[in-house]
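Recap quiz, item 2
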Amino acid sequence: MTLTMNDKPNLRVLIVEDEPGDARLMQLALRKCGFAIEMSVAGDGVDALRMLRREGERYRLAPRPDLILLDLKMPGQSGLGFLEAVKQDECLRAIPVVIVTTSMLDADVLASYRAGAAGYVPKSTDINEFIAAINILGQYWFRLARLPLNRD
Amino acid sequence: MNAATQRLTILLVEDEPADAHLVKTALSENHILADLRHVVDGRDALEYLRRQGPRFAGAPRPDLILLDLNMPRMDGRECLSALKQDPHLSDIPVVVLTTSEVERDVLASYTLGAAGFITKPMDVLKFMAAIRDLGVYWFDLVRLPRQE
């Protein structure tokens, strides 16, 4: 099956972010850039894994995302732990995970790529810079690259 | 951001001379100041990355790999699989750049650890724009791993 740009179904993005304000900002930025995508939010890695694995009544019909945007610093399971769990799960590992974080530590960057991250985007505290960054991210993942479509 | 502070190295794994030339042209047209290294198949790519043989002694470690899928000797899938299983190489992002539009190739590439799957546009101007967008994401936006 070959899908062209025009008949591509809406892409789905899962935002894994513990700060509700930051999650809202991410959704706002993605919407402002005009990408035709559906978004869902998980507040931590454990919840995100339940959603991805459709565990429990709440997530029984949760749609599988085409891309995951992950904050590194979260309570409970760290972002890195979540990334490792996704990349070790045969059913989930094809989903690209892009880190979006305020952490600038070289060790975090290296560990993220080793664990299978598909990009490490510094999170700017300036709203306009943040939106510009999300626009570049979106151009790459939603317009240029082809994502694996998990339409099960 | 990254590009301003250091010159990045790209390893292009591509058996078609015309396509390799197009990538080189697109990088310079878009003012992406990268040190572009070129090998023609997966086996050469692994030898380059592991600095095997006199040809690749002292070869700079790439910051990004652009990988074609269909090549003689060792194809892109096998090469991607081998380098993602090598703990010394697994952190280098690999973007698949191919003429393939097959959904199965997309899924297989991401499953093996690709950080993007880009179908080469047939149109030259679109090809230039694709390399520009790729460059903006990897060289202006994201932080790349740095080996200490």
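The domain at 2-141 of chain B is CATH 3.40.50.2300 (Rossmann fold).
Residues 3 and 58 of chain B are 22 Å apart (CA to CA).
End of item.
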